[in-house]
Amino acid sequence: MYSNGLILNFRQILKPKTLRFISTTLPSAKFKNESGSTLNIFDRNTKNLQRQRAAIAEDVNLYDYLKDEIGFRLADRVFDIKRKFKLAADIGCNRGYISKHISPDSVEELILCDVSQKNLDTVSVMDGIRVRKQILDEEYIEFEPNTLDLVVSCLSLHWVNDLPKAFKKILESLKQDGVLLAAVFGGDTLYELRSSLQLAELERRGGLSPHISPFTEVRDIGSLLTNAGFTMLTIDTDEIVVNYPTVFELMWDLKGMAESNAALNRSVHLQRDVQFAAAAIYEQLYGKTDPETGKVTIPATFQIINMLGWKPHPKQPKPIERGTGEVSLKDLYKLDEIIKEIKTVKNDSEGR
């Protein structure tokens, strides 16, 4: 897939774990200090300003390639659910990365929610879907209880300070047997850039500063959804690798996507000598040479956590009671023999 002169590769990249000096993953974006008060990790005003600026940029279309791909995949997952949802909400819709791919066969009415009116004005949906537009900050999700059949979100919830609260609010807004389908960046996102910046600052400054915001791990998403009250969870990950000419194009595109660092303790200024050192380290550690053209590119890995959760309903499938199984796991190696034996017993009983 080609976009903005870059190649999107869907493949695995070797991750040298020895270069991960700092843990940047949190089960929740909030933590408590010694006094017991809750502290925010992300500066929501900064993040909203970044999104507003990206929305009004003249070249905003150039930076849609990654989120468009992820939005298309999410919309395809909505289509896989064989149900027509009467009322759905797209939280943090941005420029409609999911909404423009949703089929009227899947959704009757869609509420588009974003912090930017400019984004809401530019979103387009397929004919046949009724649309409502609403200014909404993902930090403060408010809908009437038990009104929505489906909630979708594409790459916006990872900037929320209180994910447990956000998930609970979404659960409250859903009807029984309603569905949450969302995608966020995972903990392995931009590990190449993080490692290169850490090594560059160690070499040039003798210390480290946080330049990349923390991301949530897969295991934490499952716990958060379960604690919020969702059932029948499905959580999986994708890895999308984008090849860039240099680290500078990567950082420029992150700014255009409004995915720049918005952590409260971030280091705003990145010195020029550190930038050039990071670029050299990045190319040395991760650079790939095209055998045909001889050009060197650098890969940037984006780990996508996809989550699917259902609001409980009495008629939903439930696990059988513990201890009611008829076959031990230790006998799985002879499963074929057990099945043949069961079929033989069944045929004998029918013959009688």
TrEMBL record:
The answer, when asked if Methyltransferase is one of the entry's keywords, is: yes
Pfam families per UniProt: Methyltransf_23
SUPFAM superfamilies per record: S-adenosyl-L-methionine-dependent methyltransferases (SSF53335)
Q: Which regions form coiled coils?
A: none
Task: Kindly list the residue ranges recorded as spanning the membrane.
Answer: none
GO biological process terms, alphabetically, are:
methylation; mitochondrial respiratory chain complex I assembly
Q: List the record's Gene Ontology CC terms alphabetically.
A: mitochondrion
State the UniProt keywords alphabetically: Methyltransferase, Transferase
Under Gene Ontology molecular function, one entry of this record is: methyltransferase activity
State the InterPro entries in the record. Malonyl-ACP_OMT (IPR050602), SAM-dependent_MTases_sf (IPR029063)
Q: Which Gene3D superfamilies match?
A: Vaccinia Virus protein VP39
Q: Which PANTHER family match?
A: ARGININE-HYDROXYLASE NDUFAF5, MITOCHONDRIAL
User: What protein name applies here?
Assistant: Arginine-hydroxylase NDUFAF5, mitochondrial
Q: Which organism is it from?
A: Sitophilus oryzae (Rice weevil)
The protein's gene is named LOC115880823
